[in-house]
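Margin note from the TA: students keep mixing up input and output lines. Inputs are the sequences; the output is the structure of the whole complex. Example:
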Amino acid sequence: MIKQYFKQALVQLRQHPLISVISIVGTSLSIFLIMLVVMLQQVKVAPFSPESNRDRFLHIHYMTINHKDWGNDGTSNGPMSVQTARELYKSLKTPEAVTIYSCMTVSTPVSLPGIPAIGADVRETDATFFSVFDFRFVGGKPYDEANFDAGRPVAVITESISRALFSTTESVGKEFLLNHAPYRVVGVVKDVSTLADMSYGQVWIPFTSTDLPNDTWCDQHMGMMSTTILARSRDDFREIRAEAKRRMNEYNSILADQGYTLRDLNRPYDQETQSISFSANMEPDLQAARRERVIIFIILLLVPAINLSSMTQSRLRQRVAEIGVRRAFGSTRMEMVGQIIMENLIVTLLSGAVGLFISVLMAYWGTDILFAQPYSMTLNAPTVDSSILLHPSTFLYALLFCFVLNLLSSGIPAWKASRTGIVNALGGKIH
Amino acid sequence: MLIHLLTIIKNNLRSNLLLMAGVFVIATSLWYAVDYVYAVAVNQQKSLGFDWEHVYYVQVGVLPFESVQRDTTTRSTDEMTREYLEFYDRLQRHTAVESACYTINHFHYVWKNSSTQLSRDSLKAYSYYREVSPSYFTVFRVNGVDGCSPEELSRRASHTSDVVVTEDVALRLLSDDTDNMSVKATELVGKLINCGNSDSIRVAAVCEKQKYNEYTSWQGAAYIIRQLGTGDCKVGYNNIPYMDMFVRIKADADRKNFVESFRKEMKRQLRVGNLYLADMRPMSHYREEQLSEFRSDLYTYLAIAGFFLANAFLAILGTFWFRTQQRREELAVRLVAGATPHELQLLLMAEGVLLVTFAYVPALVLAYNLGHADLVETWPVEWSVVRFVSGAAIAYLLLLVITILSIWYPARQAMRIHPAEALHGD
């Protein structure tokens, strides 16, 4: 039966080459665009090293603070100080781990004595950072709590920085100058894509080894730090948020003497919310972002669906005689509908595969354009590797869309055609 | 002719309605994309207000305490300021450097800025708050609003704590009615204004309007003049990382690898006290980085427009291809009755154009309401009737071109019909 369907679909395709090309091109175009939209979203939320645990992340990238002298609406917004991050989040009991790190990377000169410096993006972190983010170490290991607490000048660097400095990736134990201060390499990791917003860097050092914790504002409540919480599972999110809220209320009652109030704007955010959160002083509207995406999907699906169905209908007109003959020889109505849907499904799947293929090509070819990051502070272009984009879920999405497209465009005309009376059908009339 | 075409369309109403529904969705979406591209194009016509070419950013670094090279003797702020100015002077003395300046809270293209409210009596204006040295205007080639040269503007703005404002800010501080053409922005020169809650400051000059970058609209800015070493204007090591230095390089000296050779040459000279040259990059670097996001939006909209045009092409082509086949006999009769093949082609195209126009009218109504309800991108070009009419006309023309292109092939098939063959079946 399947073989029969398949044969017939192929014959159909060859009978009307122009129409076949139109259907395939039209469908693959819209699958292609839908896949791109999915991919743009996937890059923000799909897990990849070093952010493989994205589904368990809760971020507090920025904090909001108010002072009673500023009025109720007067707030200051931005990264928080180490003290605030420790008091509010490091003390939480429910999460698996909580890491504090600098909110952005800073381009800093790295060099060997006597050799011109190169600029590297440096991120300053605590030791927990490496258990929250799973970097792929090619040599050595991350700095531990002891090194962190002692503020030792040690660094984890990427392969490409290691190559640029030492001409080799085996540089564990060697020394280099970071901002003219000597640092020792303790670990070398694979390069990280700039699309990993929170963990990206080229050199990571303990923030206790520099002056950064003292770079504070608002009486040491705000600073240069962000926090990421790793939950044991998504089910814990509610509990973590509740605990963080309680902790914040306690802490605010202590701060009341100084007149400050910290506000979290419903932080911590999960990965999806964080990905659309650009400004520190506004809570992102996740529902609106999702609604926007749904509208885009609907329009992208609707246009080719209407086009295809108007074409399918015209094509069926030419085939009603054939349908009549089949019905006369005992084919049931359901079989006819099934066959027509199957024929179209094969065409749609074919074009879906083409569309998926083009979109993957496009994602590699147009990385710079597609994944340009708004308000990015780093000057290194984002890189994409196949592990980021080629998730089974991406492919399943494509298949699902193909099927919906097929149902929309062929289901209705097929159902109509099957209702044609046999005699009329034999005569070539559709009604 | 029109009534004849309408009858033909009515006779095929069912499939025509489907086609029109498709074109309606396509036309609305196409208009949306065209409107965006149109707004960007209009905005590109407005002047940027400054010139980033041949300008380099210089980051002054302070040796950290961990560095063995750090001179740990204590210094007064005056000494630290002198170090900074010495660094600045040495930079300026290089033969390739045309001019240099330093700024605080102002760095084109990198979203490093602060803003303030300016006021004069009851008139208020929001603007960027940019602290710059007088030579800033020479480095970025900013002209005065009266057409004076950047050099002249720098000379006028040579007094610390004076302020230079952009034309739009000046107008807002002069009159309630910003469209009042009789007010000249230069009238504000010499007047006192308030910046935030501070004391009054004198307006030294008015400069041309400024965009933040190529894709934004003109945004008001106030340049507070700062000259280190004069009065209280000092800088300590902890503040140096927040200051930015820029140099304009002579055009003939701005070659490839300029930064490398410059850094090599100046490495020793630019080690002043505990200061060193930490980084140097062309402005184009930052510009490219920031514009890529705006460009990516633009490309997205162009791609969307392309997608809908392609879909319109496919839909009309497919429908008319079937239609000429189904109407073979009818078309043959027309030929027999004396129509020339070219008239047949014209007939089919006119039918297509009419169908698209019918679908476009409701699309226009929807589009107008979308724009009216502020559901289109109204920044940086605001919604106006001119914008709507232009966008609508461009989208319509595009649709027409696509319609004619897509009907061309089926119409050619129709022109080749041999009446005798087509009619012998009946």
